[in-house]
Write a structure and sequence with these properties.
Blueprint lengths: L2 H12 L2 H11 L2 H14 L2 H14 L3 H13 L3 H14 L4 H13 L3 H14 L4 H13 L3 H14 L3 H13 L3 H7 L11 E7 L5 E7 L6 H19 L10 E4 L2 E7 L3 E8 L2 E6 L3 H17 L11 E4 L8 E6 L7 E8 L10 E4 H7 L14 E5 L2 E6 L9
Parallel strand pairs: 2-5, 7-9
Antiparallel strand pairs: 1-2, 3-4, 4-5, 5-6, 7-10, 8-9, 8-11, 11-12
Helix pairs in contact: 1-2, 1-3, 2-3, 3-4, 3-5, 4-5, 5-6, 6-7, 7-8, 7-9, 8-9, 9-10, 9-11, 10-11, 11-12, 13-14
């Protein structure tokens, strides 16, 4: 280590980052800028951290600097740029295991799970005892429906460390495989990763097979309500599958507003719900769909009106900026072509200009503000007012208040 770099290290340790920057600037120390960037990051000075590492990259683009660049970009929420930085680190040094892991994480977040597995495999070839990487790899395989592969990855992670994250992943995989008792034995109960008791509800089919609905209670205050919805879903879809014009494995079967899909697992047909982060895929743990059905039923019972057609695959017109407002108003007009539900969302009290509305998929809205999807099966002409997550008013097509 050069004397200048030693001096930067001393100044960083002493907390004098201004003086450390001055030494880096006068000496052209790329590694010194990395040390300064890390120090700023630990202080929460995100912009300063990014500026420092980018100064360093202008001097020398090493793998360590590219990696720190990714960390600084990630802290600012610039995921795509962070992925590019981690990729640059792996190009500069293919033996940089952490860069491969972080690259895999971002590929996972982007829904490219097969690419994520390839990155994790590169990292594990460098360090096969990284339990976090094994657990991440299991999550990627689980998302792809490669359940045996996922289970093997989680088992490798748990052999290295008994982490609640890996236990959750293993339990989720076992639920998908229909091993409910084993899933409940693996569930990381009492931790923040506890997803509650796994449950399977089944209906017999005319061909001798079973149709199953699998979910977890997720600490729901009324788990019996989840079971009621699960039994209704199983019953209705089983009836449709037994009808000549009904659904078939691989085909979506709508129940109320949820576009369920049927997965053929041989002896059983599994009811799956769309993966909210990748709607073209589905998953056999349908907890969120059941929770949404419960909330919709409670809402409809309270305002005393039946459900009208809608689908998670429809869109809602959203006024720019409305989703950042605590108080919003949702109104349903006539649905139109292209899957537009007729619903619009505006900030309460804001001037309304429909020409500025953005058609937002309900599936995307469920990830941002799921409460706004509660009333999607209310009739045309109805209006719903929200204060944060809470519904505070519902008026019908005649303007009568129905939220008592």
């Amino acid at each position: 280590m050069s004397s200048e770099l030693e001096r930067v290290q001393q100044l960083v340790t002493a907390g004098d980052l201004g003086a450390a920057e001055a030494v880096c600037a006068s000496s052209g120390l790329a590694e010194g800028w990395r040390l300064v960037s890390v120090a700023y990051g630990r202080r929460g000075a995100k912009e300063a951290s990014l500026a420092a590492v980018e100064r360093g990259l202008m001097v020398g683009a090493t793998a360590r600097l590219h990696y720190q660049h990714g960390v600084a970009l990630e802290a600012l929420g610039r995921a795509a740029d962070a992925l590019a930085a981690y990729t640059a680190a792996t190009v500069a040094d293919p033996a940089h295991a952490w860069a491969w892991v972080n690259r895999g994480r971002h590929e996972d977040d982007a829904g490219r799970h097969a690419d994520a597995i390839a990155s994790y495999d590169r990292a594990l070839a460098l360090d096969e005892k990284d339990e976090v990487c094994w657990s991440n790899r299991g999550n990627s395989a689980l998302a792809l429906g490669r359940f045996d592969d996922a289970l093997a990855s989680f088992d490798r992670a748990l052999a290295l460390a008994d982490s609640p994250q890996a236990r959750l992943g293993r339990a989720s995989t076992l639920v998908e495989l229909g091993q409910i008792d084993s899933a409940n034995a693996t569930n990381p109960a009492g931790t923040r990763f506890d997803r509650g008791v796994a449950v399977e509800v089944a209906e017999a089919l005319p061909d001798g097979r079973r149709l199953v609905v699998r979910y977890r209670t997720e600490r729901h205050s009324r788990p019996e309500w989840l079971r009621v919805e699960a039994e209704a879903v199983a019953r209705v879809i089983a009836q449709r599958l037994g009808h000549p014009a009904g659904g078939a494995p691989g085909v979506r079967v709508a129940y109320r507003f949820v576009p369920f899909e049927i997965r053929d697992d041989g002896d059983v047909l599994v009811v799956c719900a769309p993966d909210l982060r990748a709607p073209t895929r589905s998953q056999g743990i349908v907890t969120f769909a059941l929770q949404a059905l419960v909330m919709a039923r409670i809402l409809h019972d309270r305002v005393r009106v039946g459900m009208t057609p809608a689908s998670w695959f429809d869109t809602i017109d959203v006024q720019p900026g409305a989703l950042r407002s605590r108080a919003v108003v949702a109104r349903r007009d006539l649905p139109s072509a292209g899957g537009r539900s007729g619903w619009s969302v505006v900030a309460e009290g804001a001037e309304v200009d429909p020409s500025t509305f953005e058609a937002t998929p309900i599936m995307a809205l469920l990830l941002i503000r799921p409460e706004l999807a509660k009333p999607i099966t209310l009739p045309v002409g109805w209006t719903v007012r929200f204060d944060g997550h809470a519904v505070v008013g519902v008026t019908d097509e005649h303007g009568a208040e129905r939220w008592q």
